[in-house]
User: What shape does this take?
Amino acid sequence: MLPIQQEFLARRAAHCVDYAALPVTTPCYVLDVDLLQLNAEFIGQIARAADVKILLALKAFAAFAVFPAIKSAYAGTCASSPDEARLGYEKFGGETHIFSPAFRENEIADYRRWCSHFSFNSLRQFHQFRGALADRSLGLRVNPEQREVATALYDPCRAGSRLGITAANLAGADLTGVAGLHFHNLCECNADALARTVAAVEQKFGDLLPQMEWLNCGGGHHLTRDDYAVELLIATLRRWREKYPATLYLEPGEATALNGGVLVTEVVDVFENDGGVAIVDASAATQMPDVLEMPYRPQILGAGLPDAQRYTYRLGGPSCLAGDEIGAYSFAEELRPGRRLVLTDMAHYSLVKNNTFNGIRLPAIYAYEKGAVRLIKKFGYEDFVGRLS
Ligand SMILES: Cc1ncc(COP(=O)(O)O)c(C=O)c1O
Assistant: This one.
């Protein structure tokens, strides 16, 4: 393991916070700025070692109040819509890259204001807009047809995918004005998946690579995970840097905020129905949608698998959705109303995806930094009603 990774992991392991004891109102997200900064520093070190530029994928993490703590590690942001692009341009700065499955003509002027780099999902759209965007850096999203993600919902290389132009569909096309290629086929992947993808891209699009000004390797690189093979990532990217003149980009989202925040919730009621049930004040359906969408089981500090400890409960949220369940967890002590639970790794994809179904209020957002906690934002009735009429 490289010394930069050893140091990163040691510093992260040494960072211990009793989030349940913080003076916050529940439910709330607590963004741990110390940990977000640690992730960003490490990502910046990887960028320098691999000689690549890194963009923050705003789709995963866009809590702009903490951007000042992380942005020096990044060359800019990548966005998926005009509003996200504007957020990146105004609140983060640097380069703003945009990919859209289909750009709408009436949004192009907005995109021109905010974005430096465009990736088109079809040749038709590239040909349609290359004139209007001649002063921007334009590229194509290609589909390497390299499947690396088991969950079809998150696999851009699934059969018949609507994302990226395949090599067969690119053959013989007029590529005048193409400055870059973008590919994205990973989700929570290690560096071996990138190495295989890079080989697939070379095999399918190798004739284009020497002429490109930039190559964007997309997101899904789980850089800040304990077992991430940083050396392989750096070796893979360095090989491309030596072979081709292009600037290389990675646009990780999740890795930026991995383990960078928690959701603190409180038990509201406890009863029995074929085992213990605890209703908490946080909802899987509205405040951590990936628990149901992915689906996955969040970790809860101090809790174990069902029956691993003395008291087991199915934890459910306050919405009317029958399946608004976080999962079954065991605890050493009986759960009672008022007990606080800390769900880990909730900074990425939770804040950006949450919603107000059932009128359930959005959780407050706090920042924890150097021993102190401060409120970033509290939500109210206006935030619910303002979206409805
Ligand atoms: C084009 C593109 N870039 C970057 C990302 C960020 O991926 P992750 O958050 O898994 O790193 C995604 C995620 O879907 C994406 O579609």
